[in-house]
Design goal:
The complex is a heterodimer of chains A (294) and B (310). Chain A has eleven helices and two strands; from the N terminus they run ααββααααααααα. With 294 residues, chain A is mainly α. Chain A has a two-stranded antiparallel ribbon with strand order 1-2. In chain A, strand 1 and strand 2 form a beta hairpin. Chain B is an all-alpha fold and 310 residues long. Helix content of chain B is 78%, strand content 0%. Chain B contains 13 helices and no strands. The chains are: A mainly alpha (294), B mainly alpha (310). Chains A and B meet through helix 5, helix 9, helix 10 and helix 11 of A and helix 1, helix 6, helix 7, helix 11 and helix 12 of B.
């Protein structure tokens, strides 16, 4: 008897694959720039407690311009707002807040979107009909109106924003996942798993979902950007995370009426927000470019 | 084609029905809460009961829904709690104001973004393609209220050329319309430009364009007569669907510039808890969204002969 064993190929570890992915991204200068912007803000959010910043809530000296040094030697690099709070500190602490809530909301939306999509795509039949119809109903609302309805009905809080983002984003994620699964379910490894008698749940979660991850990573990146915009916009409309903790959208809202003599109060958070979103969008563009290449 | 239209219409009606049931269910299942909203927080239970009785609220949920939906279809959405006038009296003028905004936006955006998309897609990978693409990502990345902030800082507070609010208290004014339209334009045009670019680039790579160029037709003629026809099918769908996006985007812009449009009406109602206005605005918005989806689907099928009978 001649038994041949298939040669086993050692799978590179997650970490080395991650760095290989970053290496691939080097070929796209636009993607690298986006990654740099995102890493900058994530780093700021993480090290915010370690930085020598003023307390973001402390009322110091109101209406100081950019690059002010007080007689006693305290610096306000980006000035202070109408209540005398340090803007640099508020922008950096604000990045932590917006990144934490937007990541949480995106993860929750992805969880529900993927479950719905994989069930609709793999189980088909009535599951597909019902789930797709729910998705169509939710997608027929203009997004911002859905946010406003949900948040104003439930009340403005972090958890309710997560719920609103989930309702608004999960249908879109569901559609993408469903499309991917419809394609993947015809593959041989799915047939093999079915023949082995694996339960549908296991096939969906272990065989199908991990193989759909490529396009989902690009989408997640874009969606994270949208969620940051949504949270900031809700803050601007007065339906966001509750004050007094620093929130970019709310900072802009409060600064606009004072714009004629304290323009820096509104321009700085607007620039911070734009640069973060730009980072996510360029990163997604770069990732898409590489994924199309091979 | 007719079957397709009928099926689409059917799903449109079904979605409107479900959305209206959800809305009615959320806001008016609890009758006493509705009465509390109308009569104010200090009204007694007896007063609320009396009001419910007088206004025909003491019926089953579905009876009330049918009456409500029937009135809504005739344009009667009840009385605004905040403004103390019938909802229809504020809704339609506000919608018309948003329509004016949309009209100017589309009149500028469609030619501009189609032109830029075609210019970019004509020579894929060229300098003009790269710069148009990067520019459109850049402008689309800036959230509307951030670009509104930055533009206001430049044109209103630094240069002093334009008014910072667009409430139109002194009658209609073009000057007050510039900034809101500009903000919406910056945010929206990039998407259509990129769709047009992708579609144009695809067409330019196709066999029949190569044939046309190789047989010696002038380049301009190849573009105008051969490429554009096919390249503009995809952007058409996107432009119609843009109406749906606009209803989202317009809220922020109208609030920022205090423009008396549909979006501001909805937000004010949501913040006040003016349930009848919220219901009316949402129904109208979803109707516009679903109808534009319908037009886009049918239009795409009509314009693209390849999928007409499949």
């Amino acid at each position: 008897m001649n038994t041949t064993t298939a040669p086993t190929v050692e799978r590179p570890s997650v970490i080395s694959r991650f760095f290989k992915g970053i290496g691939l991204l080097r070929e796209s200068p636009v993607g690298m720039f986006g990654l740099a912007l995102v890493i900058f803000w994530v780093a700021m959010a993480i090290i915010a407690p370690l930085l020598p910043l003023h307390d973001p809530l402390a009322a110091l000296v109101p209406f100081q311009k950019i690059m002010t040094t007080m007689p006693d030697g305290t610096h306000f690099w980006l000035g202070t707002d109408d209540k005398g709070r340090d803007i640099l500190s508020r922008v950096i602490w604000g990045s932590q807040r917006v990144l934490v809530w937007s990541s949480l909301a995106t993860v929750v939306a992805y969880f529900f979107g993927m479950m719905m999509g994989v069930a609709a795509g793999y189980l088909g039949g009535w599951w597909d009909e019902v789930i797709s119809f729910i998705g169509n109903v939710l997608l027929s609302f203009p997004v911002m109106i859905l946010y406003i309805l949900i948040v104003s009905y439930l009340g403005a809080s972090g958890i309710n924003i997560v719920i609103a983002v989930t309702f608004a984003s999960a249908p879109g994620i569901m559609r993408i996942v469903r499309g991917l699964i419809l394609d993947l379910r015809t593959r041989d490894y799915v047939a093999a798993a079915q023949t082995r008698g694996e339960p549908a749940m296991r096939i969906m979660l272990v065989e199908l979902l991990p193989n759909a991850r490529g396009p989902l990573i690009v989408d997640a990146c874009l969606r994270l950007g949208y969620t940051v915009v949504a949270i900031a916009t809700l803050g601007f409309l007065g339906l966001g995370l509750p004050p007094p903790d620093p929130d970019w959208g709310l900072m802009i809202k409060e600064a606009v009426p004072l714009g004629s003599f304290a323009g820096h109060m509104m321009v700085i958070p607007a620039l911070a927000l734009s640069s973060l979103i730009l980072g996510f969008n360029l990163l997604a563009d770069g990732l898409r470019e590489i994924s199309l290449r091979d | 084609m007719l079957i397709l239209i009928a099926r689409r219409l059917g799903s449109m009606v079904l979605i409107m029905f479900v959305v209206s049931v959800i809305l009615f269910g959320i806001f008016e299942t609890d009758k006493l809460a509705v009465a509390g909203k109308v009569l104010g927080p200090y009204s007694s239970i007896e007063q609320r009961e009396l009001w419910l009785d007088q206004n025909g609220y003491n019926q089953s949920f579905w009876t009330r829904y049918v009456i409500w939906a029937g009135n809504a279809m005739r344009g009667d959405f009840g009385q605004s709690l905040q403004l103390k006038v019938p909802v229809s009296e504020v809704l339609w003028p506000r919608l018309a104001n948003t329509g004016i905004l949309a009209l100017f936006l589309f009149a500028i955006m469609i030619p501009l973004s189609l032109f830029m998309g075609v210019m970019a897609g004509m020579k894929e990978g060229s300098f003009q393609d790269r710069s148009i693409t990067v520019f459109s990502v850049l402008t689309t990345s800036i959230p509307e209220f951030a670009s509104a902030t930055l533009l206001t800082a430049i044109f209103v507070f630094t240069l002093g050329w334009l008014p910072g609010t667009s409430s139109m208290t002194g009658g209609f004014s073009f000057k007050e319309l510039i900034l809101p339209v500009l903000v919406l334009l910056l945010y929206d045009f990039g998407y259509i430009t990129r769709m047009t670019r992708a579609s144009m680039a695809e067409v330019m790579n196709s066999q029949y364009i190569r044939t046309a160029i190789l047989k010696g037709l002038p380049y301009k003629r190849v573009i105008v007569r051969h490429a554009l026809r096919n390249a503009l099918i995809a952007p058409f769908t996107v432009i119609v669907l843009q109406l749906n996006w606009l209803l989202s985007g317009v809220i922020v812009v109208e609030v920022f510039f205090a423009y008396k449009g549909f979006g501001k009406l909805l937000l004010d109602a949501a913040l006040f808890g003016d349930i009848f206005v919220i219901e009316a605005c949402t129904l109208v918005a979803v109707f516009v969204a679903v109808a534009s989806q319908f037009i886009s689907d049918i239009g795409y099928t009509y314009l693209n002969p390849r999928i007409r009978f499949s």
